[in-house]
Amino acid sequence: MSSTTGASAPNLSLNASTLELPEIQATILRPRPAPYFGTHVLLRVDDAQAGRDFLRRLTPHVDSAADWWMADNPWISVAITYAGLEALGLPKDSLQSFPEAFRVGMAARAKELRDEGVNHPKNWEIDFAKGQAHIGLSAFSDSENERRRILAMARQQLEGFSGVSVLLIQDFGAQPGDLNPLGYKDGIDQPPIEGSGVEPLPGQGRPIKAGEFILGYPGEAGVPLSMPQPEVLGRNGTYLGFRKYQTRVGAFNRFLRDNGSTEEERELLAAKLVGRWRSGAPLTLAPEVDNPALGADPRRNNDFNYANDPHGRQVPFGCHIRRMNPRDTELTRLTDVNIHRVIRRGTTYGPPYDPNDLSEVADTTPRGAIFLLISAKAMATLEFLQQEWINAGDFIGAGDERDPIIGLQEEGATFTIPKQPVRRRIHSIETFNVLRGGEYFFMPSLSALRWIGNLSETSSIEQREG
């Protein structure tokens, strides 16, 4: 059997599956393969009928989650912005049933997302800043040949539609060692989902209620979240936050050089910023030196908590992974961590990370990460994370310090490493990942895609005006 990550096969328990897997898009549950190759495509719909015809032709090629653990199978996913749903001619009642934050779009929520300064929408790539993106396609595969094949298939469905145009094509993946733009193994800690049919890996904790991630199922509060109407449109769908970052590799390498006199010191600092060594080995299990074998083992590399590190001397309170999943850390503000988890589908684009490149040119090279953040309440969750866990630190005892990897740093920002007898406070940490664009998408079920594709021109106009 194929594996989910190129390592050991998942612990299947399909009789425990309570989700309508053939209705759910594969990307919601299926992790990217290792290695991975793929393409993100953004489309604009200028003619509603052409857009619906395109979706109708494409939908049979969109993979469901029926065999979601088979990550080596290539697949394609489809998501639609609110502007896209309008452009496709959805009925007025259906459009109004979506949450306000989704309706206005990510750029309009810049204040709530703390997208300020260099991350403000006025500095985004033009296709995002003007909200032109209507449909997002993502193709994932485990080889370059398969990526080309499924992308060619998607292009065939687009042929002949003058009312649908391509805004952006962004290839991703194929980094040596499956590393992210700053040289770290990524995508390790994902939330287990109740009813998915797969037992959690060690360290993932108890399965989280499916309704936190997929509409139509009870969430952690015991009831389903409200969903778009009619039910065929909302059920088994979810929301997706799309965030494209450009990585300032030169600034990151200069920061390590300026704050570490040896390669060992620089690598330890890099591990302290994230909470893991570059290999993926967590500092809690390998506090002094890297352990690549541990980092490569999915049954061990996430099996830890912070019970033996209450002062953050192994894993700093303000590091990236402790912020994004505090686990059993005692927080200063009572928070149910499970309701703020998201499914992450991070992808890397551009040339590989070069630890020796200290140049300013490396700060402007088209290279970075695109994050797909999946949640049944993605807008509220992403805005909470941006406000409370990424661009602040009080919740975890890190004061006004921000996430050292994806936070928007102010001038003179610091990063604190607790240690005895005196903590180490590092000054002048910079913004290492600059936001270049983003949008909120709705990822419909397979039935919802068919429903949208089969809307008639007359009925959609009448319903919108009625």
Task: Describe this protein with a few key phrases.
alpha+beta, globular
Strand residues, percent: 15-25%
Total individual domains: 2
Gyration radius, to the nearest Å? 22 Å
pLDDT < 50 runs, ≥5 residues: 1-9
- Secondary structure class reads alpha+beta
Alpha-carbon distance between the two ends? 53 Å
Task: Describe it.
By secondary structure, the chain is of the alpha+beta class. It folds into 2 domains: 14-109 and 117-237 and 443-465, no CATH class; 246-437, no CATH class. Helices cover 26% and strands 16% of the residues. It is built from 17 helices and 11 strands. The strands form 3 sheets. Strands 5, 6, 7, 8 and 11 form a 5-stranded antiparallel beta sheet that branches. A 4-stranded antiparallel beta sheet has the order 2-3-1-4. It has a two-stranded antiparallel ribbon with strand order 9-10. It is globular. It starts with 25 loop residues before the first helix and ends with a helix. GO terms for molecular function: peroxidase activity. InterPro entries: Dimeric_a/b-barrel (IPR011008), Dyp_peroxidase (IPR006314). Its cofactor is heme b.
Short description:
One of its GO terms (molecular function) is peroxidase activity. Helix content is 26%, strand content 16%.
List the helices and strands and how they pair.
Elements: H1 26-29, E1 37-45, H2 48-58, E2 75-80, H3 82-87, H4 92-96, H5 100-104, H6 110-113, H7 126-129, E3 135-141, H8 144-158, E4 164-173, H9 231-234, E5 238-247, H10 249-258, H11 263-274, H12 292-295, H13 320-324, E6 343-344, E7 347-349, H14 361-364, E8 368-375, H15 378-390, E9 414-417, E10 424-427, E11 433-443, H16 446-453, H17 457-465
Helix pairs in contact: 2-16
Keywords: Iron, Metal-binding, Oxidoreductase, Peroxidase
GO molecular function: peroxidase activity
Cofactor: heme b
